[in-house]
């Protein structure tokens, strides 16, 4: 089972403004994000990302099992392609493996990203660096105790101003 993390970031490492707005990413970032989630067939996100994606009209993400991590009992009005769960990161991956998925797609936000990487559960990271900087926001990884080196697998220019970095996490 391979686990991918995919994020669009500002040049100073934020994935959203302090109020949760993440609409600074490019069309090309969004397209590539959707392509990767469709290929994986699943998308794992935290409650705050679910709330923000719902506000922006992206939820549920198409052609993928949407797994939302939350301790709250939320109403599922979407049916079988949406799952609200309080499983641990490890148990979510075991669940997806059991369902027959060979790739797990992690879509943030910062808290979820940290909870997976600190348990060594992320294999590859895609980062689309957008030509934006703002002084306050939500960082790609919430503060936590971990440290990894990465191997650069590929770089791609997504448009005139956006670079995609693809890394392997050395474990
Ligand atoms: N630029 C991008 O590519 C991108 C991508 C994704 C998200 N974002 C942005 O990231 C922001 C959200 O990031 P965030 O760090 O604030 O929050 P988050 O990681 O999306 O969600 C965190 C919340 O999810 C729940 N949760 C996480 N792990 C859990 C587990 N194992 N079991 C049960 N519940 C769990 C907890 O909520 P409860 O305990 O309260 O249920 C936790 O407070 C949004 O503003 C979004 O727009 C940006």
Can you tell me about this structure?
It is a single chain. The protein is an alpha/beta fold and 171 residues long. It has one domain (2-170): Dihydrofolate Reductase, subunit A (3-Layer(aba) Sandwich). Helices cover 24% and strands 33% of the residues. The protein has helices at 27-40, 47-55, 89-98, 110-117, and strands at residues 2-9, 14-17, 42-46, 65-69, 82-85, 103-106, 124-129, 137-139, 149-157, 163-170. Strands 6-1-7-10-9 form a 5-stranded mixed β-sheet. The protein has a 3-stranded parallel β-sheet with strand order 3-4-5. A hairpin with a 5-residue loop joins β9 (149-157) and β10 (163-170). The mean pLDDT is 97. Bound molecules: NADP nicotinamide-adenine-dinucleotide phosphate. The site of NADP nicotinamide-adenine-dinucleotide phosphate (NAP) has 29 residues, from β1, β2, β3, α2 and α4.
Which descriptors would you attach to this protein?
171 residues; alpha/beta; Dihydrofolate Reductase, subunit A; three-stranded parallel beta sheet; 33% strand; binds NADP nicotinamide-adenine-dinucleotide phosphate
């Amino acid at each position: 089972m391979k686990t991918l993390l995919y994020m669009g970031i500002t040049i100073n490492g934020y994935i959203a403004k302090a109020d949760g707005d993440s609409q600074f990413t490019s069309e090309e970032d969004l397209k590539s994000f959707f392509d990767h989630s469709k290929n994986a067939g699943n998308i794992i996100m935290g409650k705050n990302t679910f709330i923000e994606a719902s506000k922006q009209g992206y939820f549920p993400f198409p052609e993928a099992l949407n797994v939302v991590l939350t301790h709250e009992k939320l109403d599922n009005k979407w049916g079988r392609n949406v799952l609200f769960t309080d499983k641990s990161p490890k148990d979510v991956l075991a669940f997806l493996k059991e369902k027959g998925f060979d790739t797990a797609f992690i879509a943030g936000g910062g808290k979820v990203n940290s909870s997976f990487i600190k348990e060594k559960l992320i294999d590859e990271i895609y980062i689309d660096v957008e030509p934006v900087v703002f002084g306050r926001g939500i960082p790609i990884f919430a503060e936590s105790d971990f440290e990894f080196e990465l191997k650069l697998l590929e770089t791609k220019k997504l448009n005139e101003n956006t670079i995609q970095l693809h890394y392997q996490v050395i474990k």
